[in-house]
Amino acid sequence: MLYPLKFYPIYKHYVWGGTSLAALKNVKLKPAEIISESWELSSVKGNISVIANGFLEGNNLQEIIEIYMGDLVGESVYEKYGIEFPLLLKFIDAAQSLSVQVHPDDEIALKRHNAYGKEEMWYIIEAEKNAELCIGFNKKTDKKIFQEALQNKTLTDFLNFEKIYNDDVVEVPSGRIHSIGKGILLAEVQNTSDITYRIYDWGREYNAKTARQMHVDLALDVIDYNSYKSYKTKYGIMKNDSSEICRNNHFTVNAVDFDNTIIRDYVSLDSFVAYMCVEGSAILECNESRETIKKGETILIPAVIDEVKLIPDKHARLLEISI
């Protein structure tokens, strides 16, 4: 019988990372070592998540999808995606700003890379005082102006910077230029795609020790050059219930905030559910299974499970993610 599945985190050590994830995950770091990202659920080639609990421990995500198919991910999800898990879930610690980048949409990604494009959503877990991120433009731009700004090193004059606070939600559709700023710990939900076009790296691209490949030529026809009034998502939270905070063509994300025991009913949902804990801790009960989830952890609920009881330790908030 399928049960709530935990996975071993896949840690990434990029130049902009820090120590917040290590503290959250209780990982002992070597001197000068950092963790940038924890890939919680992944079927990206070379980075396939491995189960960490129960009788399926040691099997990877694709292996169990191949065995359990729609019972694990949902019949319609399996029909569309096969053994590739359709989402990539991460926790990200930005001690320094990430590169300014953009992702192609499905049409361009299919043509260029035979892959899906990428859409993301960020939920801010912790933000230092005066933390900000780059999202979109602060004025309408075009390809020519953008190229001139890159050449003249004045791109930052056109980028929109948003002050960011705990519990903010920011959606990043394909084509929207973006960069996570320093001092931010967040949860990221995206569809399975590892296609990123880097455009600008805050000067690190000019240092031989930190330089990474840029993809400006590929990015030019992908970028949405418009400017928008608002880049943050406004949402409301219903206590002891589920509140939708993001919905797009690839995934839906709800926030479940509770200080009493609640029951989540998934009878009519033809999809898996993933929980990412962003605050507090809770016990999950379903069928004969009982698992604990705490801040910084992720659990996958197979589609065949119709009901989950959530019992908080005082208070918890989960991101509830499905297709």
Separate helix tally: 7
Q: Can you identify the CATH superfamily of the largest domain?
A: Jelly Rolls
Percent of residues in beta strands: 35-45%
Major sheet, described briefly?
7 strands, antiparallel
Task: Specify the CATH architecture of the largest domain.
Answer: Sandwich
Specify the CATH class of the largest domain. Mainly Beta
CATH topology of the largest domain: Jelly Rolls
- How many beta-strand elements? 20
Average pLDDT taken over every residue: 96
Rg from alpha-carbon coordinates = 20 Å
Residue share in helices?
A: 10-25%
Topology pattern, helix = H, strand = E: EHEEEHHHEEHEEHEEEEEHEEEEEEE
N→C terminal distance: 22 Å
Low-confidence stretches: none
